[in-house]
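Thread: "does anyone have the structure for this chain?"

Original post by V.I.:
We have the sequence but no experimental structure in hand. Need at least a predicted one for the grant figures.
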Amino acid sequence: MSERWAAGAQIVGPAVSAFWHEGEFGTGKERQVLLKTTRARHPELKAHLLAHHPWQNPEVTTVPIEAGSKGCPEWIAAHAQPPVA
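Reply from O.Q.:
Generated one for you, tokens below.
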């Protein structure tokens, strides 16, 4: 991500998902991507994900960081910044 909407990501899976979709129950393999960004960069990141995801209604959820290891919030803030031209 050259726009640096996130400082980093973790890709979890594949995992088996069970879900309801269009009135039917289904299962499938999915991957979960956890993106680490700031509150300020979140709207741009979310908009990009929704605009470019191949699914019509992808699952994009937000989990605020209430606490973390020393330096983690600072690392995210330092690296989830627009590139300097």
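V.I.: this helps a lot. The first helix runs from residue 42 to 52.
O.Q.: and Residues 8-79 form a domain with the Alpha-Beta Plaits fold (CATH 3.30.70.120).
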